[in-house]
Each structure stands twice: as structure tokens, then as C-alpha cells.
Amino acid sequence: MSKVTIFKFRLYVAGDAPNSTQAIANLKLFCEKHLKNRYEIEEVDVLREPERSLADGVLLTPLLVRIAPTPVRKIVGNLSDQNPLLLLLE
Fold first, then answer.
1. Using CA atoms, how far apart are residues 66 and 41, in angstroms rounded to an integer?
2. Cβ distance 6 to 68 under 8 Å?
């Protein structure tokens, strides 16, 4: 039996700022297209959880962190360019 790889992402956003809402939408569309039923997305609003964001070292938003599979990878921006996202799948 082959094991299915689940991709776990954490997306740091700043409330409903335009780049943040765009990053959320872009990530969800990308995951549905390339990782159907094989992904989890955790959204962290740095305005609501500033202590956590600082503890995690988040200085810019939107920031996407691929937590699993390892190694951890990060992308900053609204995720409109899919090329860096495709590199996360490797």
C-alpha cells in the first residue's frame, strides 16, 4: 500500500488586507488543482495573534510556510505566481 503525502501549510496574513485575501484565494485554488484531498491549510492572522507571529519570526505578510513534508519552505507574497508554489511540491 502506498502512503499518500499530505502537504501542511501555514499562511500568515494581516486581517483582510488585499494581499492577504488574495493569498488565501490563490493558495486554495492552487491546492485544489494540484493537491486535491492531500493538503491542510492553517491561517494565522498576525493582527489577532501578534505574539504567536513574533514567536514564529514572521516579519512580512502574507507568508506561506510549508510545514510538511519536510524540509520547511517559505514564500512571501500574494501567491499569484504559481512557479514558487510548484517548487513547494518537490
1. 9
2. yes
Query: pLDDT per residue over 44-84, tens digit each?
Result: 999 999 999 999 999 999 999 999 999 999 999 999 999 99
Task: Find where cell 514564500 sits.
Answer: 75
CA atoms within 13 A on the CB side of 66: 21
Burial of 69 (0-12, 13-18, 19+ CB in 10 A): middle
Q: In the block, which residue shows the cell 492577504?
A: 20
| Ordered structural domains, the chain, with CATH | 7-88 (3.40.30.10)
Which of 54, 46, 45, 7 is CA-nearest to residue 27? Answer: 7
H helix count then E strand count, the chain = 3, 4
